Amino acid sequence: MKADRVIPAASSRLSAQLFNIITVVALMLSLSALLLGKLLASQKIGFLPLVLSLPPVMIWLGASIFVYASIAHHPNPRTAHYNKWAGYRYYGVMGGLVVFGPMIYGLLGGWQGLMLVLGLAVAIIVPWALFDIYRAAREPWQDITIESE
Question: pTM for the full model?
Answer without folding.
Answer: 0.88
